[in-house]
Amino acid sequence: MAKNGAGEREVLLVFMFLLLCSCCTGDEYDLLLSIKNSMNDPLNLSLSNWNLSLSYCEWKGIACDNSSHVAKIELSGNNLSGKIPESFFHFPYIETIDLSDNQLSGGIPSNISICLSLRHLNLSNNNFTGPLPRGSIPQLQALDLSNNMLSGQIPDEIGFFWGLEFLDLGGNDLVGKIPLSISNMTGLQILTLSSNQLIGEIPQELGLLKSLTWIYLGYNNLSGGIPTEIGELTSLNHLDLVSNNLTGEIPSSFGNLTSLHYLFLYLNKLTGPVPPSIFGLQNLISLDLSDNFLSGEIPELIIQLQNLEVLHLFSNNFTGKIPNSVASLPRLQVLQLWSNNFSGEIPKNLGRDNNLTVLDLSTNTLVGKIPGTLCNSGCLYKLILFSNSLTGEIPNSLSRCSSLRRIRLQNNRLSGELPHGFTKLSLVYFLDLSNNHLSGTMGGTRGWEMPELQMLNFARNRFSGALPASFGSGVIENLDLSANGLSGEIPASFGDFSELMELKLSENKLSGEIPDELSLCEKLVSLNLSHNQLSGRIPTSLTQMPVLGQLDLSVNQFSGEIPKSLGEVESLIQVNISHNHFHGNLPSTGAFLAINSSAVSGNRLCGGDSTAGLPPCKGDKLQVWLLIVTCLLVALAALVVLSLILVFVRKRNDNFETRGNNEVDGVWELEFFDSKASKELRIIDVVASMRDENVISRGIARGGVLYKGKSSVSEFEFVMKEVSGIDSLPTGFWTELGKLKHPNIEKVIGVMRSKKCGFWVSEFVEGQSVSEVFRGMSWDRRRKVALGIAKALCYLHCKSTGSSVGFELSPEKIIVDGKDEPRLRLRSPGRICTDAKTFVSSPYVAPETREAKDTTEKSDIYVFGLILIELLTGKTPADTEFGLQESIVEWARYCYSDCHLDTWVDPTVKGTALSNHQNEIVETMSLALHCTADDPMARPCASDVVKTLESVIRPTYCVFGLNCSSTI
Question: Which of 170, 281, 558, 604 could join 192 via S-S bond, C-beta 3.0 to 4.6 A?
Fold first, then answer.
């Protein structure tokens, strides 16, 4: 066999030499000019001086040898497009070709193997398609074809590249098994096949490649056990097999990998204990075995890992105590053991001799006290210990931990008062101590100085005394102090919380009236003051709050009548006023329509819908008849006026049509949801806008035509969207549409409909789509856009009743106004099913939606994750298309797992973003990958997305070098 193999090599070399002699003798000037003609250089950076006025050795990107022959072509990162001509491989003396990080497309030329002088070939990060090149270049040392769209199987001929030291085929759409012939490359040092569609087992023949220092096979569909032969690769520095379907136990032979620095096996199906030999790898820097089914205890032998910086064992079935020796690992920065069955106490000296930056031990069965040494390093910024059985007081030392930014200690049994100074941690933006036994006061002389605080949850504790007048924060968004023993009045200063979206003060002993100043919280969506001793009337000022959606005043001592204007608050969708002293008429509009009887009981109210279960008000019958007669007369008059207007319009426009059909064969009805628009817009304006020259876009079936119009009496501009088949619309569709009020959703101002057709009319927003503007945006602006989209999602799925209406959720459909606020366009029901062709071709669709043809909250979350990836990386599913539609997600997971931020962060924001927002970007990508999980049930809900995104988009200090996934 060896003789035959040697003979084949000799024949192949002779054949290639003949090809080289016949094909590589062309004039190098002509070859270079043919390359220039085949490529586009939009930035005019690379090919601008490629002309005969200069020697080609002076051209940009060209390097020559001592004989003035082209030895190197280096044109990376210049946004070049077009295809690679075959002439690229006709240079007889070229050693290096680097075209990485461009927009080149097409197939890789089949004549690659004729350039026997080639040593380094880098075509990574382009849009190349087709199969991998076949043949051989025996002297080729580095081949990088990663992050393209190459498909098909890895050919057996790959083994003919026997001189390779570096091989990276990751981030493509390769299928099939890893060929055994790869073992012929005995000098191979770097092997990356990650983020493809590879199947089968990992070949045990990899154990023959003794020079390997790096193996990365993650994010494929590999199965079976991990070969014990990998343990024979004693030069191995980095082993990454993440996100496959690997089963069985971790081989004990891994203990032989004495040079190993990084061992990543997470997101597999591995079982059994961690082999004791693993804890003898004294050079190990990062160990990540998370998201498996590993079990058993972690031994004290872990003390041997003196160089360990990151330990991720979360989401497994580990039991026993956290070894005390963990506290003696001097370089430990990140310790994440959440979602296991660890018991006992947290090691008492943890943090004393470590460099802890992130500690997450949540969702275990830990007991005892929180060690006071956790922040000895001065760099601890994330402390997450929730859902254990911890007792005792919060250590005083934590109140001096100025690096802390995120604290989650909820669902424990902590007691005592807050340590002095704990409310002065100036960098904390997320603080959750809910569901403990904490006591003492929150206000008084304690003082709050937490300028970054966004989320504060002290619910279900034993705090008493008055509410603090301030929390030292002008950006607080979520405040939950419910289920305590707080007393006194609601401070008028709460009106200064301009960013507040959710305020929960229920189940306390608060008294007095609701301060008018609370209405100054213009972003407040949810207000819960139930189960207190509040009194007085409902302030009419509350009716001026623009986005108030949920109001709970139940079980208090409020009195007086319900303000009629409260029923006119368009954003309000849920009200509970039960068990107070209200009297008089219940409003019959807005949120009081079809209100449940339990939400109004325990008062002296009358009227309302039949669902309210209230007695009729005196004189109601006569008033009802008068109202009916009046309405009939008004309606009749309106019909006459509308008919006259339509006759006038028909005479003025004899050939008026909509979508080619004579739809105007009935009476048009225009209903406004916005009082201001009703004064600036007339039905004649809306009808007149339905002309071909006003068409913005055309679709298919429902939601087909989009028109732009302008008022004839003012400068007011609007758009109108066609909704056909209105007979099949869900019950209450138009009512739900009118209730959708959110600053990040297009503002629907009214509907116009006839028997056969309908339009909703929206306020025109001046701006551009996300896809048009985001590449010129800084990271700060991009994260503002992301947060706005998330808030709109949360509103639709968590706050509103508009279940019949969905979003046009793609960067092309989301408009960004001049203040960087995104506005989501609405999509009418049935759009996905009826517009199947467009739907199937769209890359912004969750996998399960392609089969079910129906969107859900979880499918919208998936698409939002894609948009997050796009904002982070600058790449889109359309222009990167790493194989299947989901491949951009796989590519993102591949990039994220290696934590080479400079390789995947969008170059246009890379400079300032990496220096000021590194952890922020890493955690945002973590959220994006949560959102794009294959299993819809594994994706977070919309409200969690908003909370997580709000909490992570903050500058980060004490930056550590590796990715730190954590519970959200």
Answer: 170
Q: What is the pLDDT of residues 392-401, one digit of tens each?
A: 999 999 999 9
Q: Per mean pLDDT, which range of 40-44, 628-632, 758-762 is the poorest?
A: 628-632
Report d(CA 882, CA 872) in Å as an integer.
17
Q: How far is CA 742 from CA 182, 462, 746, 748, in A?
A: 57, 36, 8, 10
Residue range 768-830+838-953 in CATH 3.40.630.30: no
Tokens, residue 308: 């360990």
Q: How confident is the model at residue 346, as a pLDDT?
A: 97
The domain locations on the chain are: 540-612, 669-763, 768-830+838-953
Three-class DSSP labels, 762-825: EECCCCEEHHHHHHHCCHHHHHHHHHHHHHHHHHHHHHCCCCCCEECCCCCCEEECCCCCEEEC
Both structure tokens of 443: 């206000």
327-343: pLDDT as tens digits: 999 999 999 999 999 99
Q: What is the 3-state secondary structure (H, E, C) of 92-132?
A: CCCCEEECCCCEEEEECCHHHHHCCCCCEEECCCCEEEECC
- For residue 466, the Cα-to-chain-centroid distance in whole angstroms is 39
Which whole-number Å values give the CA distances from 803 to 254, 731, 793, in the listed order?
Answer: 53, 11, 12
| Angle (nearest 5°) at CA 426 between 424 and 430 | 95
Give the domain 540-612 fold.
Answer: 3.80.10
Q: What's the CATH code, domain 669-763?
A: 3.30.200.20
Torsion of CA 360, 363, 368, 369, to 10 degrees: 40
Of 48, 94, 50, 51, nearest to 69 by C-alpha is 94
Does pTM surpass 0.85? no
Least reliable range by pLDDT among 277-281, 662-666, 672-676: 662-666
User: Which residues, other chains included, contact 14 with Cβ-Cβ below 8 Å and sequence gap of 6+?
Assistant: none
Q: What is the residue-averaged pLDDT of the chain? A: 81
